[in-house]
Write a structure and sequence with these properties.
This protein has 367 residues and is mostly beta strands. It has strands at residues 54-56, 66-73, 80-85, 89-94, 98-103, 110-114, 117-122, 131-137, 140-145, 148-152, 159-164, 168-174, 177-182, 188-193, 200-203, 209-213, 216-223, 226-233, 240-244, 249-254, 258-264, 269-275, 282-286, 300-302, 306-311, 314-319, 325-331, 336-343, 347-354. The chain has one domain (49-354): 7 Propeller (Methylamine Dehydrogenase, Chain H), CATH 2.130.10.30.
Length: 367
């Protein structure tokens, strides 16, 4: 357990300035009917107040860059810092009680904090290799590393290695189902119902992104110079195609009706969706950010109202009913990337990397 010195508020909300551009498009011809997430609101109604983006920055004593973990209200407000270091930041996931973050020189340390006492790291005995991704659900923390996929209790009281593999990456868990992707000598998509002894491989192709819910698992895989979004039902072995997609998604998420994904574009990211029943991909929104993301991480979370994503140096939420993006937070002063984030009912929890000032920083496109 590593004691932490108390950390205080380190930035204030800044005035709202547009930093993303939306480009909502009509449903393509021949596409299935739009889902309930696209239903227009009854009547015009008053315009919502402008969102005040949160300004994220390293504390003054880290004037040569840092990584830090912070939290702030979902609708904007001053952020609070709860961990900071010179190491690179990694994934962050939260449940109703705790926050789990990865931050060390080797990405092999998982730190656990109680939301009620963020100044002190709680015991979490993790020494099972470099962490690639984490997923929380059903009282389980699923971790993919260079050595295995592990199903752990959030208190680290118990572990179960569900697969020994050196090339697992994306992971997902929902309603007793664990899913992950692998690359290398045994590429594919794998499923395991808790209580089963052996996982099932439902695809033998490398998948760049994965999402799970109570019914099964969705992923993207390459095909014929492009790719496709696929679904495998729980307990089944034969996947079905949900949509075609020429570009490689960096993340996939699902809600009650739709499959959502983000793609990398020349400037910023694009958000697309398709009904779970299948059809043509539908353009939802486009964001404008820098043209490079040096740490290669991305996150997509879909709730009842918004699709949330990290757009390089910012966190953006897209209103599902209109396709209008709103910037929630942005890194300021130093060049940096939003590495990862997660949500609970009230707050956004974020992992940020800010870099040493550079005489030739990345150029942010003019809006």
């Amino acid at each position: 357990m590593r004691p932490r010195a108390p950390l205080t508020l380190f930035a204030l909300a800044v005035a709202c300035t547009p930093s993303v551009a939306s480009q909502s498009q009509a449903t393509p011809a021949g596409a299935p009917p739009t889902s309930s997430s696209d239903a227009a609101s009854p009547g015009p109604g008053p315009s919502p107040p402008p969102l005040l983006p949160v300004a994220l920055r390293c504390p003054p004593r880290f004037d040569h860059g840092c990584s830090f973990f912070a939290h702030f209200p979902r609708d904007g407000g001053a952020p609070a810092l709860f961990d900071v270091s010179h190491y690179r930041g990694g994934p962050v996931v939260v449940n109703e009680r705790d926050v789990f973050v990865v931050s060390s020189a080797t990405f092999a340390h998982v730190a656990r904090y109680s939301k009620s006492a963020l100044g002190t790291e709680l015991p979490f005995d993790w020494s099972k290799g470099r962490v690639h991704e984490m997923a929380l659900g059903d009282g389980h923390l699923v971790i993919s590393t260079e050595e295995a996929v592990t199903d752990a209790s959030p208190t680290a009281a118990s572990y179960q290695v569900v697969a020994k593999t050196g090339d697992a990456y994306a992971v997902g868990t929902a309603d007793g189902l664990v899913a992950w992707t692998t690359f290398g000598v045994a590429p594919g998509v794998w499923l395991l119902d808790r209580g089963e002894r052996s996982p099932r491989r439902v695809s033998n192709r490398s998948a760049s992104a994965i999402a799970a819910d109570a019914t099964g698992v969705w992923w993207w895989e390459p095909k014929d110079g492009g790719g496709r979004v696929r679904f495998s039902p729980r307990g089944g072995k034969t996947p079905v195609d949900v949509a075609s997609e020429a570009q490689t998604p960096s993340q996939i998420a699902v809600d009650a009706n739709d499959v959502w994904w983000i793609i990398e574009e020349k400037s910023g990211r694009g958000l697309r969706r398709v009904p779970k029943t299948g059809g043509a991909p539908i353009d939802v929104a486009h964001t404008k950010g820098p043209t490079g993301h040096r740490d290669g991480h991305s996150r997509l979370i879909v709730d009842d109202t918004f699709a949330w994503l990290n757009d390089f140096s910012a966190i953006v939420r897209v209103r599902k009913s209109t396709g209008v993006p709103e910037e929630v937070a942005r890194i300021v002063e130093l060049d940096g990337d939003v590495i990862s984030f997660d949500l609970d009912a009230r707050e956004v929890w974020v992992s940020v990397q800010q870099y040493d000032p550079d005489p030739n920083p990345r150029r942010i496109p003019a809006l």
